[in-house]
Design brief:
The chain contains 1 helix and 13 strands. By secondary structure, the chain is mostly beta strands. The longest helix is centred in the first third of the chain and has 18 residues.
């Protein structure tokens, strides 16, 4: 009887677990900036998200669509913990100098931790300005702190091996994200040797 109950509970949970999966061929992040609504769309070319072939586009309420020249990947929603205004849900969208927005988009890097892709767009037109395909990895949620006109992101910098059980663990560090002569620059806050 107990086995039957456990099996029934597991089978009842499977559809719910499948709906919550990050492996979705298509999903949308909703955004609102300066009273204007727009979305960031992620869509797999093959229809199979595990092919890591999702393309990214900005869609404005007026129907204008801007495809972003970001390397195809499996992009995933994430939670941001921040002291700055985030203009999107499920991805990061933060004020950037020159009337621009800094988009921080999580990318699945199975079997490792997910990583962050940075994209700078014009806040009024959505047109592409710059991208960085890999800022670094994060665990569980993304921590962003405002620093002047830029930001600090807590990302995993290095991996260490535990001498006792030979397991691995990550060592997070702060990465600075700032604007220098109109370009996104990202550097570790403390240089280590």
């Amino acid at each position: 009887m107990m086995r039957w109950c456990a099996t029934s509970l597991l089978l009842a949970a499977l559809p719910t677990l499948a709906d919550d999966s990050v492996f979705r061929p298509e999903w949308t992040a909703t955004c609102n900036y300066g009273g204007a609504s727009f979305t960031i769309q992620f869509k797999s070319k093959s229809g199979d998200p595990t092919e890591d072939d999702q393309l990214v586009a900005v869609r404005w309420t007026n129907g204008n669509v801007i495809n972003l020249p970001v390397s195809p990947a499996l992009f995933v929603p994430a939670q941001f913990v921040t002291d700055a205004k985030n203009y999107c849900k499920d991805i990061g969208a933060f004020d950037w100098p020159g009337g621009r927005l800094l988009l921080l988009v999580p990318r699945n890097d199975r079997p490792s931790y997910d990583r962050i892709v940075a994209v700078v767009i014009d806040a009024k037109t959505g047109s592409f300005v710059q991208s960085e395909d890999d800022l670094g990895a994060y665990w569980k949620h993304i921590q962003i702190l405002k620093q002047g006109s830029g930001y600090r992101a807590l990302l995993d910098r290095t991996w260490h091996q535990d001498a006792n059980d030979f397991g691995e663990f990550s060592a997070p560090d702060w990465m600075r994200l700032y604007n220098e002569r109109g370009h996104l620059v990202h550097k570790w806050e403390i240089e280590r040797r």
